[in-house]
């Protein structure tokens, strides 16, 4: 494909059939990346002083000169995926705005000219170097004499990294991210707004999605190009048109009024470089495309091509309610392709363990003539371990630790308690036991219970971890090595003999962190405790010696959360560096690093089968990662604030999430869709837990309440036909009040942790706030 570019200063139109035809010009093969896929284009440039800025823009997208043979192998993406591909078949808007020529004709500074010349010389375009140098009026030795000086002066540290003998082209390029007249920005935006307000109601809601990303990018371009007064006026005029759930982002955006404010802002950088995803029906998309083509609104067109991803679907346009339910994240909605990978959400087959009879059962069998005591029906562990779930991963998909004898004994105890478990439901709600931390002036930041509910641990802002026994059995340390040598290792009660009664106490304090402790997690066998801290480390503590065994260092910033795998051995961590890490207790370095979030990872959770981990982030998205290969297999959007808690259903099929927006969202993992929204909390939802059989979902919030929801009804009422809809969305019922089973208020204690015991007693914990 040949594109003929008229740059306005050297008035010439050039036609060429081969790259060898050059008359006072240059033919360059470049590869330009647009919103979808790649296309090879051949561009004819006429160089003079006015073209320096255009060449720099080409340099940013050029990964090097593309060979003619290589161009033949480049293929386009399917035509229905993105904005750019849909335009490929029925005409494209011009790539340069009407004001580009006037802007390009302004004198450029010395640094820019040298950067262009260095770039051309680097690619062996000597003839073009001479043409541009003569038109710019530079002496022949300008590159040699001024190259090194301009490198350090104009580009700073980035230029030094690229080499001391040439300016950093990328740094110079960033100053030319737009070519439009700043006065016309409000005109462009207002014109699009008026058009969208006049379209049919069925299209208006979908097209209104473009307002927020366009507003942000246009404002940032004005700020970056030092149009401070125009940027301020633009912000004040149109910020009120944005959706209310972007309020926090807009407050941060308003503080960026100078280019210097934008430097070092990683979240802003991610927003600029990642594509904001919009899901729009084909009819609505055609309306928008036709409008931009007719009006030749090139400034908006350029932003859409560079920063937006239009995910087009066939079908009727979505309603305002459906769009609002899925909107709100930092990067828009998730692409439909992101949630199409197969997820093995089923449970692993439990090992065959014979359940010994209780003393009561033995007596019943030995007494002749008397009826045997009827055993309660076994569920969960007993029944599910007999069959292999068809949706479960292979037992050997990831290596899991082998069961020790102590683990088998604990499984037996679990199965025995499961026979005495209370069956919960709307007519049989759980009892709730609340643990209030009084006088917690150290600042309680995290809580966890052991699976058997015998221990509770708290992380505090004074960098300590405290462990309590919630049973009459006190906490004891193992005896010293000298005393252990005196013990008869063959005795039946050797596990009791190794404990030192002199150290018995109701609580223990663990010292080691140098910053507030934000996450803690007990191992399934109750022998270890994990803690994550602001100091960037995760520590593994022994609950036999109450000492730190390992300090895991990999995060460079605070670690907000950590959690053990349900099978032990593995654990997950996430923090301010926006990367989740998978660890094994016997490795100093992480086994996997899960990168993709655009802001802090605030909570982590293992899937019940240990093959997947879920992460919630301040970018208002939830991601599900495959432990085996590190791939992101699900992206869920819909929350309007940072996500603080995640909980998988016991069968592994569903996920619940809570955030600062006070909502609890329910997700179907297999289909990758939101299937429910629970409203009622008035503050951050800080903890979520399903009952042992999944009938009840409990939510704890900073509004000092515990709420119980009918999870069975929420999941059973789903219409499975909706899951196969081509649009990738379903209609959510507003039935929160029907699903709410009970609300329980504390006097003045925010609920920061919930836990169901093996018999379905609900435990809650928080620090009293007088």
Automatic annotation (TrEMBL):
Residues 355-366 have a biased composition (Acidic residues). Keywords: Nucleus, Repeat, Transcription, Transcription regulation, WD repeat. InterPro entries: LisH, TFIID_NTD2, TFIID_NTD2_sf, WD40/YVTN_repeat-like_dom_sf, WD40_PAC1, WD40_repeat_CS, WD40_repeat_dom_sf, WD40_rpt. It is found in: Nucleus. Residues 79-104, 148-162 have a biased composition (Low complexity). GO terms for molecular function: RNA polymerase II general transcription initiation factor activity. Pfam families: TFIID_NTD2, WD40. The keyword Thylakoid does not apply. Gene3D superfamilies: TFIID subunit TAF5, NTD2 domain, YVTN repeat-like/Quinoprotein amine dehydrogenase. One of its GO terms (cellular component) is transcription factor TFIID complex. Residues 76-104, 140-162, 355-402 are annotated as: Disordered. Belongs to the WD repeat TAF5 family. This is Transcription initiation factor TFIID subunit 5. The gene is TAF5.
């Amino acid at each position: 494909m040949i594109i003929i570019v008229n740059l306005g200063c050297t008035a010439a139109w050039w036609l060429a059939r081969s790259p060898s035809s050059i008359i006072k010009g240059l033919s360059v093969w470049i590869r330009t990346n647009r919103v979808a896929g790649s296309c090879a284009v051949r561009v004819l440039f006429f160089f003079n002083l006015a073209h320096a800025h255009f060449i720099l823009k080409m340099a940013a997208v050029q990964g090097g000169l593309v060979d003619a043979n290589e161009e033949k192998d480049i293929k386009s993406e399917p035509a229905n995926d993105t904005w750019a591909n849909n335009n490929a078949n029925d005409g494209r808007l011009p790539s340069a705005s009407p004001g580009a020529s006037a802007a390009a004709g302004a004198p450029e500074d010395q640094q820019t000219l040298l950067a262009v010349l260095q770039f051309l010389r680097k690619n062996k375009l000597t003839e073009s170097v001479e043409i541009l140098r003569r038109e710019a009026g530079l002496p022949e030795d300008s590159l040699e004499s001024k190259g090194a000086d301009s490198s350090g002066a104009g580009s700073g540290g980035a230029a030094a990294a690229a080499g001391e003998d040439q300016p950093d082209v990328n740094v110079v390029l960033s100053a030319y991210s737009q070519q439009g007249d700043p006065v016309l920005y409000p005109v462009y935006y207002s014109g699009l707004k008026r058009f969208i307000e006049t379209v049919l109601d069925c299209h208006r809601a979908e097209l209104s999605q473009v307002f927020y990303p366009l507003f942000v990018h246009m404002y940032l371009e004005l700020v970056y190009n030092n149009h401070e007064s125009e940027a301020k006026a633009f912000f004040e005029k149109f910020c009120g048109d944005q959706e209310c759930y972007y309020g926090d982002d807009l407050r941060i955006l308003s503080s960026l009024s100078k280019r210097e404010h934008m430097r070092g802002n990683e979240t802003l950088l991610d927003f600029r470089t990642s594509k904001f995803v919009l899901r729009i029906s084909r009819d609505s998309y055609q309306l928008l495309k036709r409008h931009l083509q007719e009006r030749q609104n090139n400034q908006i067109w350029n932003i859409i091509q560079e920063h937006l991803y239009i995910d087009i679907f066939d079908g009727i346009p979505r309603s305002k309610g459906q769009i609002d339910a899925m909107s709100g994240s930092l990067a828009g909605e998730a692409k439909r392709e992101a949630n199409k990978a197969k997820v093995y959400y089923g449970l692993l087959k439990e090992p065959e363990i014979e359940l010994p009879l209780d003393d009561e059962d033995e007596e019943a069998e030995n007494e002749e003539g008397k009826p045997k005591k009827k055993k309660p029906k076994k569920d969960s562990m007993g029944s599910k371990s007999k069959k292999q779930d068809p949706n479960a991963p292979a037992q050997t998909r990831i290596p899991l630790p082998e069961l020790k004898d102590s683990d088998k004994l604990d499984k037996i105890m679990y199965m025995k308690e499961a026979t005495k478990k209370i069956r919960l439901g709307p007519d049989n709600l759980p009892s709730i036991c609340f643990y209030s931390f009084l006088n917690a002036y150290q600042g309680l930041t995290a809580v966890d219970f052991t699976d058997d509910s015998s221990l509770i641990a708290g992380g505090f802002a004074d960098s300590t971890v405290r462990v309590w026994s919630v049973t009459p059995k006190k906490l004891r340390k193992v005896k010293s090595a000298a005393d252990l040598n005196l013990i008869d290792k063959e005795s039946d009660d050797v596990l009791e003999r190794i404990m030192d009664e002199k150290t018995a106490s109701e609580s223990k304090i663990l010292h080691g962190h140098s910053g507030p402790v934000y996450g803690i997690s007990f191992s399934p066998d109750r022998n270890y405790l994990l803690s994550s801290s602001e100091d960037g480390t995760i520590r593994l503590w022994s609950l036999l010696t109450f000492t730190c065994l390992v300090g895991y260092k990999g995060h460079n910033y605070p670690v907000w959360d950590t959690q053990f795998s349900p099978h032990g051995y593995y654990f997950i961590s996430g923090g301010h560096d926006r990367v989740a890490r998978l660890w094994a207790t016997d490795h100093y370095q992480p086994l996997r690093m899960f990168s993709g979030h655009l802001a802090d990872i605030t909570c982590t959770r293992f899937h019940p089968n240990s093959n997947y981990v879920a992460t919630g982030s301040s970018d208002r998205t939830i991601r599900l990662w495959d432990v085996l290969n590190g791939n992101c297999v699900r992206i869920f959007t819909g929350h309007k604030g940072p996500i603080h808690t995640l909980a998988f259903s016991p069968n592994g099929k569903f996920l619940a999430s809570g955030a600062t927006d006070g909502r609890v969202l329910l997700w179907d993992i297999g289909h990758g869709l939101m299937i429910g929204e629970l409203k009622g909390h008035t503050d951050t939802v800080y903890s979520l837990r399903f009952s042992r059989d999944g009938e009840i979902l409990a939510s704890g919030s900073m509004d000092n309440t515990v709420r119980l929801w009918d999870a069975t009804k929420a999941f059973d009422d789903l219409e499975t036909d909706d899951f196969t809809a081509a649009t990738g969305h379903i209609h959510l019922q507003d039935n929160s009040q029907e699903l709410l089973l009970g609300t329980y208020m504390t006097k003045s204690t925010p609920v920061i942790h919930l836990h169901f015991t093996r018999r379905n007693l609900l435990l809650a914990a928080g620090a009293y706030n007088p």
